[in-house]
Amino acid sequence: MKKLILIATILFAVTSLSAQIRFGAKAGANFSTLYVSGDRTGINAEQYNGRFSYHFGAVMEYSINQMFSIQPEFMYLNHGANLKKSNSFSMTDGHITLNTLQLPINLKAKFPIGKSQLFVYGGPYLSYHIYGKATGKINGEKESIEIFKKDDDMKRLDYGVGVGVGLEINKFTIGLGNQFGLADINGASGSKMKTGNQSVSVGYFF
Questions:
Q1: Residue 199's beta-bridge partner residues?
Q2: pLDDT tens digits along 121-134
Q3: DSSP string spanning 41-70?
Q4: Of 56, 109, 53, 50, the residue nearest 83 (C-alpha)
Q5: Could you say which residues of the chain have pLDDT below 70?
Q6: Are the C-beta atoms of 202 and 176 separated by less than 8 Å?
Q7: Alpha carbon distances (Å) from 191 to 146, 151, 184
Q8: Would you say 127 and 100 are in contact if contact means Cβ atoms under 8 Å apart?
Q9: CA-CA distance, 94 to 97, in Å (whole number)?
Q10: How far apart, in whole angstroms, are the C-alpha atoms of residue 137 and residue 140?
Q11: What are the angstrom distances between the C-alpha of 200 and each of 23, 121, 138, 176?
């Protein structure tokens, strides 16, 4: 009898937990840039413009109640910035590309609107820049300069906070987000570099 009660309790707990969890996927476009401050020679705070790129990944939603949920994500980001004509890389038609794995953990609030739901979210994120490069033309020839090399001051680990708003209709979502980098990924004295990213994404919960 005790075994039956234990099995029933476990099954009930598993069923209740699975009812609170949803998995999904999302992808979209970014408008990203790099924010630089300081006076270190070779780093010009005015040398970067915003750049369009993309992101995709998996999401999980754990419902606390009908209104609030926690949504961790595992995302791949292609982002960076375009280089202005005058830049420390001496490049024309240049841009910085960062390839990044990111783990945001957001608190999400949902508000029913008819058969759809308006949602807002916010929370911290942790990023790891797996690869980066500056690409452009030097003296008319296309060149690439690797970032995050062993002898480089650039830091792979990044973190910040993000906020966003969106709409869910029949398990489909569309959202607008904004991320503010808080870590100095430059790593050298005399200058700081932080990432910034605005995004639009579409998603689906299975």
A1: 30, 177
A2: 999 999 999 998 88
A3: TT--TTSEE-EEEEEEEEEEEEESSSSEEE
A4: 50
A5: 1-19, 38-46, 86-90, 187-188, 190
A6: no
A7: 19, 17, 9
A8: yes
A9: 10
A10: 5
A11: 19, 14, 34, 5
